[in-house]
Specification:
The protein is α+β, with helices and mostly antiparallel strands. Helices cover about 35% and strands about 10% of the residues. The protein contains five helices and four strands. It is globular and about 35 Å long.
Length: about 140
């Protein structure tokens, strides 16, 4: 059962986003990027108070994703990424992105904090950052 309201067009948008942001990270990395996207829709805190749909999340600006803001969000959704997008929309979570609202690819190691949010872990080249439960209980 879906943890956020969505439709098929939004599933395909999320699939395009996870492909653009994490294709080189394998299925698990793409699932984690999907977790961050779903968490942003679920969040009612910080930069995401007015983000209520996958479409709003994908195209949020400022504060959105590099893929949509820097022009490499052009590849169509493939069946694999569509399946992965459905999994995260249906509530599957993957550590360290389980409760994360941010990720980025550093040139070196993951800093302990990024924009005052704590590092929750790393998967391949992406570092994930989660708010505290007291600041953003809706993603826990």
């Amino acid at each position: 059962m879906a943890v956020i309201a969505t439709n098929e067009a939004e599933i395909k948008l999320l699939a395009r986003l996870i492909r653009a942001e994490a294709e080189g990270e394998g299925n698990l990395g793409m699932l984690m990027v999907g977790n961050v996207g779903v968490n942003r829709v679920r969040a009612d805190c910080l930069d995401f108070r007015d983000v209520r749909t996958l479409r709003q999340m994908v195209f949020q600006s400022p504060g959105g994703f590099e893929a949509t803001q820097k022009g490499y969000f052009y590849q169509p959704a493939r069946q694999n990424e569509i399946r992965l997008a459905r999994r995260v929309v249906n509530g599957e979570r993957f550590h360290p992105a389980s409760n994360s609202l941010w990720f980025f690819m550093p040139t070196e190691g993951c800093p302990a904090q990024w924009f005052n949010q704590w590092n929750s872990g790393r998967h391949k080249s992406h570092c994930f950052y989660s708010p505290s439960q007291s600041v953003c209980p809706s993603v826990f």
